[in-house]
Automatic annotation (TrEMBL), chain A:
GO molecular function, one term: protein kinase regulator activity
GO annotations of cellular component type: cytoplasm; protein kinase CK2 complex; UTP-C complex
Subunit structure comment from the entry: Tetramer of two alpha and two beta subunits.
Function recorded in the entry: Regulatory subunit of casein kinase II/CK2. As part of the kinase complex regulates the basal catalytic activity of the alpha subunit a constitutively active serine/threonine-protein kinase that phosphorylates a large number of substrates containing acidic residues C-terminal to the phosphorylated serine or threonine.
Protein name, per record: Casein kinase II subunit beta
Gene Ontology biological-process entries: regulation of transcription by RNA polymerase III
TrEMBL record, chain B:
SMART domains reported in the protein's UniProt record: CK_II_beta
A single Gene Ontology CC term: protein kinase CK2 complex
Organism: Gymnopus androsaceus JB14
Gene3D superfamilies: 2.20.25.20, protein kinase ck2 holoenzyme, chain C, domain 1 (1.10.1820.10)
GO terms assigned for molecular function: protein kinase regulator activity
Protein name stated in the entry: Casein kinase II subunit beta
Length: 280, 396
């Protein structure tokens, strides 16, 4: 899968490389999830520790990424080098997006909902974040994490379904919400980020506008490390869920399961609230 | 959800050339091709034509005699304008001479669509209709659940209302009991009422073999390393026969793994503000008995305010103890085991009073029994979602 996608793009476009490899890579189709890694991050060899064992032709691949590759390199090598360069860029990318600057760049993409929106109906089009199931390349493709239902979904398009999950890593979305607790989505109500075009509908318009203004006043990007007074102990109680019904009646087995799940939830809420009380 | 919202949501999909939805679409088209080639185009019925339109893949063909039976249409004539003309169109009856009083044929078309949709809602609840839909289900026409740990469980179309004009069609996944937006924008024009709120659930009540059971036990190898649980376990699990002790319950092994967020390999503690809050939504108990531990109000049967006085260190113990009352029957049989497991306690009590210890075990309502039988199951379920407390330092 991965290889096929790689070949498709790389064969035709060798000749018309745009000036910088990274900007070419980012603009090519299927790479919409990636953000730009700062060049000085790549040039700092400390950040690349260990990657030379993961990537064949490491030096040339790195040269290719940083646009320092000699032009007289053979075409055959160039083809395979492109694959290695993508792998290298992906692995650097996984490290970059968990840095402060990397997180900030990904937040911009998140706010524009560039990773898609949660397909779960009760999540009301909550924007998603990319995540890997493993940090080892060539194992699992990228998945999308919804901060509202805290679950994983497969990308809708096969273009994105074939991206390696290791290029985003297992840590990224959770670190993002750890560092920016103000960005943790509410469990109910409309999404208030990435939905600026979507929010305005009928009577809700005024409400949303107020909400947005409030939101802008306490710009979440400035709130890194902040959010001390946010409490998430009982947010789960606000989450909406779907209750299957036949002719308006709940189903016995499903209802039982759902009651059990809600009892588990209530127990966690009680536990967290107690912790919070003692903590404060 | 408004249109601009959806438009944005769909953008991604529109760009994709070969999305999963498209593959399904192709399949559907192939079927239609087969059908039309065997039938001369001139005799293609309105119903077949309607069901072959792009975006109408979820519809099955309602038989004409079902539509012709007035009993099946009770009440619909008040909901559909131009009732007579719409009926004629759906049933391919030549219109009367004075049909010219209809200003625009497109009005009748939308009436016919509404009529067909509402009849369809009723038809798919009948035995024949369910059978028609199960064929489509098994062929994967409705697609699969987008949730990663549902492992591609097939979904069925589902409405959020039985009244037309409220919401578009959604997809119900029997594994996570949740509903999803169809992946393709083609289905944004399909009214959910044409499938109704009941169908999806009646379908899985009727075909229990497609319905996952409400409990799930991780294979022993996977309980320690969730990473390996995705592929291999699912395979090995499906080969073994699976029985739900509830004959009326789901008869299929559930895909029960719940995602555990990790930062640098460490589970995110629930004590962190960004810690997991929603795992309950996907969690299943390990055994069906555990479902009985919650009463109809959603309270734990043995919930004697155990959280008012517990300390951090006691958490695990507390969880053990809340099993206490569950299996009073096992009390008598397991006395011997009780003794053995109670030994530590006895030592603490400076021995001698063995009989007393047994009596205590009896009066304390089988603490060890609970540990042995139900307790182990329950505990593991609890541990699965309870946080790695020690990692909090790392994470916070």
């Amino acid at each position: 899968m991965l290889h096929r996608a790689v070949d498709d793009v790389s064969t035709g476009s060798d000749s018309d490389y745009s000036r910088f490899w990274i900007s070419w890579f980012l603009s090519s189709k299927g790479n919409e999830y990636f953000c730009e890694v700062d060049e000085d991050f790549i040039l700092d060899r400390f950040n690349l520790t260990g990657l030379n064992n993961e990537v064949a032709n490491y030096t040339q691949a790195l040269d290719l990424i940083t646009d320092q590759l000699d032009d007289d390199i053979q075409d055959e090598l160039r083809g395979s080098l492109d694959v290695q360069a993508r792998l290298l860029y992906g692995l650097i990318h996984a490290r970059w997006i968990v840095t402060a600057r990397g997180l900030a760049k990904m937040i911009e993409k998140y706010k524009r909902a560039e990773f898609g929106r949660c397909p779960r109906v009760m999540c009301l089009l909550q924007p998603l974040l990319p995540v890997g199931l493993t940090d080892i390349p060539y194992e699992k493709s990228v998945k999308l994490y919804c901060g509202r239902c805290e679950d994983l979904y497969s990308p809708k398009s096969s273009r994105h379904g074939s991206i390696d999950g290791a290029y985003f890593g297992t840590t990224f979305p959770h670190l993002l919400f750890l560092v920016y607790p103000t960005l943790i989505p509410p469990k109910s109500g409309p999404t208030d980020i990435g939905a600026t075009t979507a929010a305005a509908s009928g009577t809700r318009e005024g409400e949303n506008r107020i909400r947005r203004r409030l939101r802008e006043e306490m710009d979440p990007t400035l709130a890194e490390g902040g959010g001390e007074n946010i409490s998430t102990a009982s947010v789960a109680l606000k989450a909406e869920r779907y209750k299957p019904r036949i002719y308006g009646f709940q189903l016995n087995e499903t209802a039982k399961l759902q009651r059990w799940q809600e009892a588990v939830r209530d127990r966690q809420v009680a536990r967290l609230e107690e912790l919070e009380e003692r903590g404060s | 959800m408004n249109t601009s919202d959806l438009a944005q949501f769909e953008e991604e999909e529109a760009i994709s050339g070969t999305g999963e939805g498209d593959e399904i679409m192709e399949e559907a088209e192939e079927q239609e091709d087969g059908y039309t080639s065997s039938t001369p185009t001139s005799t293609l019925t309105w119903i077949s034509w309607f069901c072959s339109l792009p975006g109408h893949e979820y519809f099955c063909e309602v038989t004409e005699d079902f539509i012709e039976d007035d009993f099946n249409l009770t009440g619909l004539n008040t909901m559909v304008p131009f009732w007579k003309e719409a009926m004629e169109m759906v049933l391919d009856v030549e219109p009367d001479e004075d049909a010219s009083k209809i200003p625009d044929v497109s009005i009748v078309e939308s009436s016919a669509e509404m009529l067909y949709g509402l009849v369809h809602q009723r038809y798919i609840l009948t035995r024949v209709g369910l059978a028609a839909m199960v064929d489509k289900y098994e062929a994967g026409i409705f697609g699969s659940c987008p949730r990663v740990y549902c492992m591609g469980s097939n979904v069925v179309p589902c409405g959020r209302s039985d009244i037309p004009g409220i919401d578009t069609v959604k997809l119900f996944c029997p594994n996570c009991n949740d509903i999803y937006v169809p992946p393709s924008s083609r289905f944004q024009g399909v009214d959910g009422a044409f499938f109704g709120t009941t169908f999806a659930h009646l379908f899985f009540q009727t075909y229990r073999e497609f319905s996952p059971a409400p409990f799930w036990k991780a294979a022993t190898s996977s309980s320690h390393s969730p990473r390996s649980s995705t592929g291999s376990v699912a395979h090995s699990a499906t080969t073994a026969t699976f029985v739900n002790p509830n004959p009326h319950g789901g008869q299929k092994r559930a895909a029960g793994y719940v995602y555990v967020p990790r930062i640098y390999g460490f589970k995110v503690s629930e004590r962190a503000k960004c810690g997991p809050r929603m795992q309950w939504l996907r969690l299943r108990p390990e055994s069906p008995d555990e479902l009985e531990m919650v009463d109809w109000r959603g309270r734990w049967l043995d919930d004697d305010d155990e959280y008012d006085d517990d300390d951090d260190e006691d958490e695990e113990e507390e969880e053990d103890r809340q099993m206490e009352d569950f299996d009073p029957d096992a009390n008598d049989d397991d006395d011997d085991d009780d003794d053995e497991e109670e030994e530590e306690e006895e030592e603490v009590r400076k021995g001698g009073a063995r009989q007393h210890a047994v009596a205590t075990a009896g009066s304390a309502r089988t603490i060890p029994t609970a540990n042995k039988s139900l307790g182990s199951g329950k505990l593991r379920a609890v541990r699965q979602w309870s946080p790695a407390v020690n990692t909090q330092g790392v994470v916070a």
